[in-house]
């Protein structure tokens, strides 16, 4: 044995991963849960175990519902390792990670990947200026650092935009304005899906409540905004845009961008698992079955890392994936698996009922995928849309070729930001499809690490072999 | 600007340094958040054009908040600020090209 072996290794301790780890443990499996953050909860329940009363009142009951999950993990016998960065994963179930500059490797009979979502890139002119952050980033600062953005301007669309806006409001710091990109066309297109969404009326009411709160507080809202630019020399100073047939300018040094979230597919890509393009959510998703099983039987994906569904769906999917995993490793039989999963499937269907409605209503606007020539697409290597178009005109047809020629996607973020936009630009420029163009190839290390970490890992493996 | 929900007490306050300047923050904050709280938006200059960058995603995904701690380039949003921590700006190829300085750079 090279290092610690586990029945199940779970990567990511958000609602999906934590639920999966607890479920697998309850079936008597040995479980290791790896997480990048210092405490469990993922981004949605981030830092929930340390929440102050002042913060609790701002963040609301949905956030606090994460407490019981994190408490459950603390009381369990799950081997929870926090503050670790997973940087390699192999088909035989080997997972390599670093903690405090020291690398370790473990192996799982079955791996559950629950690395959640990342925010969709919003390549607008000026989006790289300091002071421009994602709406999610503002929420992270609220949860982890107890910090509230003052006089913020929120730009984009989606439920998170309203959630963050109402949380800022509750923290006594109303946003200066919401500049939204959805148009009356979005509302019309979403209407047919409203009936289905009513099955999850609790969520709909919550959404309506957010909008009512913003209205009561007289927060300025613009919809159907186009030509959005962030102005500033060295830092953000203002947002300019067109809405209702007029040009507007709003001064601010805090711009919060949001256009929905997309699955973080770094691990599923490094494993070369099968992916599909989701036309509703405008992103690539790993192909999974109803249990979360991927194209490689050793790996499952649960939560937003597979398909965007939110925290409740993620928790249920985590449980379902774990039940399937313990079946896979021979702890329960097929009948027991199906019986245990059935009520969870039912609950998940109800929670998912609202998704199509939200996806259509807050679909990212077409201009997002077609940035102006001088707009930066790849933040790391500062590659602009025009340069991508030039390479496409010269015959570059895939993101990997684009990387070779332009360095686009080659920086430390490994195309986490620009990946989907590069695919969309190539689709447009070469009159192709997302499936044909594909995505950047992802390689280990998934995150930049020091060479010394890799070198010391070899020492560790050698030492263990000597014993 | 940003404000804090709770004000610091002597027990929760930490002092740290960025680029030779002294700042205060609250225990538990990340370096990136601590600098933003102190009005520092620009944390580095890009190696290609030298333009200013600051924290963007705050979740370890974008690598725009890179700073240098003990000679190592780290993600400011993933590294907690601690009492007496000395943080500096990461070296930039751009600076090297324009200043002609001979230094070693630790670039990710």
Describe this structure in a few short sentences:
Chain A is an alpha/beta fold and 467 residues long.
Would you give an account of this structure?
The complex is a heterodimer of chains A (467) and B (108). Chain A is α/β, with parallel strands linked by helices. Helix content of chain A is 39%, strand content 21%. Chain A contains 18 helices and 22 strands. Chain A has helices spanning 15-26, 53-59, 61-64, 66-75, 135-145, 159-170, 184-190, 194-197, 201-216, 266-270, 311-328, 334-352, 355-361, 385-393, 399-406, 419-429, 434-437, 451-466; strands at 5-11, 31-34, 79-81, 85-89, 94-99, 102-113, 117-119, 132-134, 147-149, 153-157, 177-180, 220-222, 226-231, 238-243, 246-251, 255-259, 261-263, 275-278, 283-286, 299-301, 376-378, 383-384. In chain A, a hairpin with a 4-residue loop joins strand 18 and strand 19. In chain A, helix 1 (15-26) packs across helix 4 and helix 11 packs antiparallel against helix 12. By secondary structure, chain B is of the alpha+beta class. In chain B, 13% of the residues lie in helices and 28% in strands. In chain B, the strands form 2 sheets. Chain B has a 5-stranded mixed sheet, with helices on one face. In chain B, a hairpin with a 2-residue loop joins strand 6 and strand 7 (72-75). Classes of the chains: A alpha/beta (467), B alpha+beta (108). At the A-B interface, helix 2, strand 8, helix 5 and strand 9 of A face strand 1, helix 1 and strand 5 of B.
């Amino acid at each position: 044995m090279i290092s610690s072996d586990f029945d199940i290794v779970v990567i990511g301790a958000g609602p999906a991963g934590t639920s999966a780890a607890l479920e697998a443990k309850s079936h008597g499996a040995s479980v290791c849960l790896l997480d990048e953050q210092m405490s469990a909860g993922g981004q949605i329940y981030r830092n929930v175990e340390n929440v102050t009363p002042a913060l609790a009142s701002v963040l609301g009951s949905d956030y606090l519902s994460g407490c019981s999950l994190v408490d459950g993990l603390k009381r369990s016998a799950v081997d929870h390792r926090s503050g670790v960065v997973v940087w390699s994963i192999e088909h035989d179930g080997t997972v390599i990670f670093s903690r405090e500059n020291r690398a370790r490797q473990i192996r799982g009979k079955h791996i559950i990947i629950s690395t959640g979502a990342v925010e969709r890139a919003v390549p607008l002119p000026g989006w790289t200026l300091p002071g421009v952050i994602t709406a999610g980033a503002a929420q992270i600062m609220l949860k982890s650092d107890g910090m509230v953005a003052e006089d913020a301007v929120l730009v984009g669309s989606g439920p998170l935009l309203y959630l963050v806006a109402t949380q800022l409001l509750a923290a006594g710091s109303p946003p200066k304005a919401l500049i939204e990109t959805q148009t009356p066309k979005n509302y019309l297109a979403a209407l047919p899906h409203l009936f289905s969404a009513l099955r999850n009326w609790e969520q709909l009411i919550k959404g309506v409540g957010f909008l009512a709160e913003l209205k009561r507080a007289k927060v300025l809202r613009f919809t159907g905004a186009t030509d959005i630019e962030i102005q500033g020399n060295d830092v953000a100073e203002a947002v300019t845009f067109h809405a209702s047939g007029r040009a507007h300018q709003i001064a601010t040094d805090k711009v919060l961008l949001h256009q929905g979230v997309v699955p973080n597919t770094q691990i599923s890509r490094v494993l070369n698992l099968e992916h599909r393009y989701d036309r509703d959510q405008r992103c690539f998703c790993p192909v999974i079955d109803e249990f979360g099983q991927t194209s490689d039987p050793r790996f499952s994906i649960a939560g937003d890392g597979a398909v965007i569904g939110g925290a409740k769906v993620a928790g249920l999917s985590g449980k379902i994936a774990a039940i399937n995993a313990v079946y896979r490793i021979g702890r329960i039989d097929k009948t027991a698996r199906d019986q245990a999963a059935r009520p969870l499937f039912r609950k998940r269907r109800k929670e998912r009922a609202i998704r199509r409605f939200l996806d259509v209503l807050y679909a990212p606007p077409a201009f997002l995928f077609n940035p102006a020539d001088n707009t930066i697409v790849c933040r790391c290597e500062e590659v602009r849309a025009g340069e991508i178009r030039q390479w496409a005109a010269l015959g570059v047809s895939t993101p990997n070729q684009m990387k070779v020629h332009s360095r686009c996607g080659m920086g430390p973020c490994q195309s986490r930001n620009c990946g989907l936009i590069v695919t969309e630009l190539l689709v447009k420029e070469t009159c192709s499809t997302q499936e044909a163009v594909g995505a950047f190839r992802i390689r280990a290390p998934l995150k930049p690490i020091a060479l010394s970490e890799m070198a010391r890992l070899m020492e560790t493996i050698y030492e263990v072999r000597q014993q | 600007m940003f404000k804090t929900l709770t004000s610091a007490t002597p027990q929760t306050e930490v002092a740290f340094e960025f680029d030779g300047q002294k700042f205060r923050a609250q225990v538990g904050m990340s370096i990136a958040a601590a600098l933003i709280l102190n009005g520092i938006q620009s944390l580095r200059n890009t190696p290609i054009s030298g333009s200013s960058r600051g924290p963007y995603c705050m979740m370890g995904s974008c690598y725009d908040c890179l700073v240098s701690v003990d000679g190592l380039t780290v993600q400011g949003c993933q590294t907690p600020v601690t009492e007496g921590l000395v943080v500096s700006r990461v070296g930039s190829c751009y600076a090297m090209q324009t200043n002609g300085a001979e230094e070693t750079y630790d670039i990710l």
